[in-house]
Amino acid sequence: xxxxxxxxxxNVEDRRDGGGGGGGFPIGGRSIGIGTVAVALIAxxxxxxxxxxxxxxxxxxxxxxxxxxxxxxxxxxxxxxEAAFVSxxxxxxxxxxxxxxxxxxxxxxxxxxxxxxGVTPTACGTGQSAMGPFYxxxxxxxxxxxxxxxxxxxxxxxxxxxxxxxxxxxxIGHHVQDELGITAKVDQMRGxxxxxxxxxxxxxxELQADCLAGVxxxxxQQSKQWLDxxxxxxAMNAAQKxxxxxLQRSAGxxxxxxxxxxxxxxxxxxxxxxxxxxxxxxxxxxxxxxSL
Length: 292
Ligand SMILES: [Zn+2]
Description:
Layout: E1 12-14, E2 25-27, E3 30-32, H1 34-45, H2 51-58, H3 81-103, E4 112-115, E5 119-122, E6 125-128, E7 134-136, E8 141-144, H4 147-155, H5 161-179, H6 182-190, H7 195-224, H8 231-241, H9 244-250, H10 265-278
Parallel strand pairs: 1-4, 4-8
Antiparallel strand pairs: 2-3, 5-6, 7-8
Zinc ion is lined by residues 47-49, 170, 174, 206, 209.
């Protein structure tokens, strides 16, 4: 992906020097060690819309409300290459989604993207890097610890800069769902169904975010022609590596479809591919799909 020299977003908030520290993480009045975090991660809440719910359950408490003070938001330093990449991809998602919303008679309000290290306060509770990138509907922000890109490459086996772009586009896909009112609707439904049904709903939310990432990739490539051979394959490979079945298998556990929250590798690839092929948001209705 030839992203250098393109316009960057102003909506990146750099909290990486904001402290946070190490050690245990306070959620629900309890400290969560690395074991619990690892379980939550393996449980498939990587890229989750709100992994804090799961962590809250695991720690036996409710996610903590946002109480911490925030300093003024500031931008990443201009010589920071990784931050420049994230800002460039974010900017392009803003352009693409603004166009699509406008064409459909609406308007798109961009999400902010927060770079952090370790832990950071969010409107969904304390965000932790071990949970992987996530979107918080409460403050409409995407949270990313850039260390996740190393995990993606070295531990999950998904290298490539476009694999990283897919991660950002997937999280922005959650923001698009929020803008469309889908997030609120799903949250309402979630409260009325069994845990297995709630997981099934979550899978449809996640596969839709994958499809929306594909829609972005389609329009992004059409206008910029900035993809190299192998870029789409890198995103497809990432989708494969973070499928629930692949994560469960690589954790040495039995594959339990009822526990899936994001969909299988094949499903994630299929929906990203569907969005990329047509570039049409209407092809991302995972809720109406008979088969995923
Ligand atoms: Zn997600």
